[in-house]
Amino acid sequence: xxxxAVLLLCLVGAVIGEGEKGxxxxxxxxxxxWPKPQMEVTEQTYLIVRPATFKFRxxxxxxxxxxxxxxxxxxxxxxxxxxxxxxxYSKTKMFRGxxxxxxxxxxxxxxxxxxxxxxxxxxxxxxxPDRPLEGSIIAASVWGAxxxxxxxxxxxxxxxxxxxxxxxxxxxxPRFPHRGLxxxxxxxxxxxxxxxxxxxxxxxxxxxxxxxxxxxxQSFPYQSDVYPDLSGLGSWTSRHIYTSEDVATVVSYALExxxxxxxxxxxxxxxxxxxxxxPGLLTECYKHGKPDGTYGPVDPSNEDNYDFLKKLFTxxxxxxxxxxxxxxGDEVSFRCWRSNPELSEFMQHLNITGDYAALEQYYxxxxxxxxxxxxxxxxxLVWQEVFDNGVELANDTVVHIWKDGGxxxxxxxxxxxxxxSGFQTxxxxxxxxxxxxxxxxxxxxxxCDPQGFNGTDAQKALIVGGEACMWGEYVDRTNLISRTxxxxxxxxxxxxxxxxxxxxxxxxxxxxEEHRCRLLGRGYGVEPFGPSYCDADIV
Length: 539
Ligand SMILES: *[C@@H]1O[C@H](CO)[C@@H](O)[C@H](O)[C@H]1NC(C)=O
Ligand SMILES: *[C@@H]1O[C@H](CO)[C@@H](O)[C@H](O)[C@H]1NC(C)=O
Ligand SMILES: *[C@@H]1O[C@H](CO)[C@@H](O)[C@H](O)[C@H]1NC(C)=O
Ligand SMILES: *[C@@H]1O[C@H](CO)[C@@H](O)[C@H](O)[C@H]1NC(C)=O
Known about the structure:
Elements: H1 2-16, E1 39-49, E2 55-58, H2 64-77, E3 95-98, E4 101-106, E5 122-128, E6 131-139, H3 142-155, E7 157-159, E8 162-172, E9 178-184, H4 192-204, E10 209-213, H5 229-234, H6 244-255, E11 260-267, E12 282-287, E13 290-298, H7 304-319, E14 324-328, H8 335-339, H9 341-349, H10 356-372, E15 379-383, H11 384-388, E16 398-401, H12 408-420, E17 424-427, H13 442-446, H14 457-460, E18 463-470, H15 480-484, H16 487-496, H17 505-521
Parallel strand pairs: 1-3, 2-4, 4-6, 9-10, 9-18, 10-11, 11-14, 14-15, 15-16, 16-17, 17-18
Antiparallel strand pairs: 1-8, 5-6, 5-8, 7-8, 12-13
The structure holds 2-acetamido-2-deoxy-beta-D-glucopyranose (4 copies).
C-alpha cells in the first residue's frame, strides 16, 4: 500500500517538474486557445508583447462595436492578476522580436444584431510565413472579430511584466450556430451585475446565446408596461424586477459581445406567479365539486387569455430584438385541468373529451399562431414535451431536448425521433450543470455529443447546437458564477470545436486548467476542478 502511494507521488511529481513542491492534479498548458480552434499551427518561436507599447490597428471596416471591443480587450489581455515572474524567455534563441501592433482586418460592414447562423469565422496570424514578425486578426463579420480577439488573448502567456506569444496561425469557426447558456431569474432574482458577469464569461468561451428563463411559478420579475400587475403582484418584491431599461442594458451588453438574448416565457404550466396579476388566466382547480382556491396551468378555454398573450408577447418581442422566443411548454400537469368541470364541457364541444394532451395541443397551437403573427414575425423554441405530446408544430420550430440526462440511450432516441420529423433541435439533457455531485463531473459533459445519435446526415444537420442549463432553485448571486464556471466551458468546447477533437478528456484537462486560471486571473470566481494552483490564487 505504502509503496504504491510513493510510486504514484513520484509519477505525479515527475509531471510537474523538478523544484516544485506541490502536487496538482494536472500541469496547465501555456497559451492554448479554449475552445480548441478548428485549425491551428503553433511554432516553438515566439514574440514578446509589451503592454506599454502594444496596440490594435484597425485596417478594414470599423464601427462602435468593434472599437469598444478593442479597448475592452486591451484591459482583458493585460489584466492586473496575471503577473508572474519573468521566465527569461526573451533571451532564448526562439525569441523572434517584439509584437507591438496587431492589425484587425474586418472585411465587411458591422451588422447591428447577432442572429442564428451569423458568421463567426476568423483567422489569426502571428509571425506567419507570409507576414513574418507581424500580427493580424482577420474576420468577415464583427462577430468573427470578437471571437478572434478572444482567441488572441488566450495566446498571451504572462512572462514577468510582459507576455509571450508563439508564432501561430489559426483558422477557426464554430461547429454549431446555437451555443447557449440558460439562467433562471425566477427561483432567485439575479442582479444585473451577475448577468453581466455571466455574459463576460460567455464571451470568453465563445457562447452566443443567453437563454433567459426570466419568469416561472415562483416569481414574475419581468416588469411589463401593458400588464404592470404581473410583476406588481407576481415578483418577490417591487425591487426584485427587471424594468424595460434593465432588459435594454442586458441586451446591449450582450450585443457588444456578440451574444443573442433569447427570453423564455414558459406556458401553460410553470405560471403560478402570473395568476395574481391577471385574473382569469389560470385554471381554477376543483375539489368536491367546487373551486378549492388553487390554480393550475393557463386556462385554454378562456378566449381573453389569447388576447392577453398577444399583447404581452408583442411587448416582449419589442424589448428583446432576437428573432427567437422560447415558449416553454414543459411539464404541463393535467391534474387541475381534469378537476375542472367547465373545461370538461369545453372539451366536449371540441370533441376531445378526456384527451388532455389534445387540450394542450389546442392551447399550444393557438399560442404558436399568435406568436407567428406578431409584427416582429418571431420564430420560437419549445421544450420537448410539446413534440412528445404530438402537438402539430410549424416546420421552423426548434425543439429543445432536456429530459433523461442520466440515460443517453433515451436522449439519443429522442434526438433521432425529433430530427426524423424534420425539426431543428437543441440539446440540453446532458448539460444540466445545476445538478452537482462530489468529484470530477465534467468528463460526462465532455462525452456528450449532440450528433452522436443514430441518424442520417440530413437528420444530424438539423441539430442547431445545445445549451448548458443552470436552474435556480439552489442558485442565486452567491453561487451562480462558481457553479456555472468553468463547468460551462466544457460545454462551450463541445459546441464550438470539431467533434473528433473533443473526445479525449485527458487531452483537454491541461488546456481546461489553463483556461480556469485565465478566468480566475481576469477576476471571476470560477471554481477549481481538483487540487491545483494558479498565479491568481495570490491576490
Ligand atoms: C511556444 O514556445 C515555447 C518557447 O519556445 C515552447 O516551449 C512551447 O512549446 C511553444 N508552445 C507550443 C504550443 O508550441
Ligand atoms: C364534433 O362531432 C360532431 C359529431 O360527429 C360534429 O357534428 C361536430 O361538428 C364536431 N365538432 C367539432 C368542433 O369538431
Ligand atoms: C416550411 O414550410 C414552408 C411552406 O410549406 C416552406 O416554404 C419552408 O421552406 C419550410 N421551412 C423549413 C425550414 O422546412
Ligand atoms: C440505426 O438505425 C438504423 C435504421 O433505423 C438501424 O437499421 C440500425 O440498426 C441502427 N443502428 C444502431 C447502431 O442502432
